[in-house]
Amino acid sequence: MTSSAGRDLTPGTWTIDPVHSSITFSVRHLMVGKVRGRFGDFSGAITVPENGTPSMTATIAVGSVDTGNPTRDEHLRAPDVFDADEFPTATLGSVDMHGTGQHDWVLIIDVTLRGITKRLPLAVSFLGVSPGMGHGEVAGFEGEIKLKRSDFGVLTDTPVLAGGGPMLGDTVDVTVSLEAVKAPPAPTG
């Protein structure tokens, strides 16, 4: 992978920096608006081998959901949505990757939520590599995945509005904005 600045994403493990990264989502509400939220607790890594296909893994604590409404957030943790007590984490793991442009890729990922795994495409843009602030190089990525909540057993009995149409859309847009840090090599000698 090469960034727009001409810097390579060098082999090694790049750890996702949760302080400078975000995982957000939006879903249609009442057919006219969107509910938006984020997850505050997640971790992961991007592994770039010397030869071969880079891979990505991430773990999200679903109980860290935040939509700005504590009552709604508590409902999202409940058994009919994330079931955070029974399934406290969602995971993403890439299984393949192919390029779609000079700095764009599609990762084929396995998404596991509520104990159900689905294979989905994650469109990713590589934003480049910075030398960082003395703690290792930093790489930037942005991506989006569309998933269907019904595929994961989330709110399968959603009410229908009086005028027709669902109260809540089935498609959830998930956006990942990541900074990943590559630790500098350990000193020798």
TrEMBL record:
Coiled-coil regions, chain positions: none
Alphabetized SUPFAM superfamilies for the sequence: YceI-like
Domain of life: Bacteria
InterPro entries, per the entry: Lipid/polyisoprenoid-bd_YceI (IPR007372), TTHA0802/YceI-like_sf (IPR036761)
Gene3D superfamilies: Lipid/polyisoprenoid-binding, YceI-like
Signal peptide interval: none
Domain Lipid/polyisoprenoid-binding YceI-like, first and last residues per copy: 13-181
Similarity-based family: Belongs to the UPF0312 family.
Protein name: YceI family protein
Organism encoding this protein: Mycolicibacterium komossense
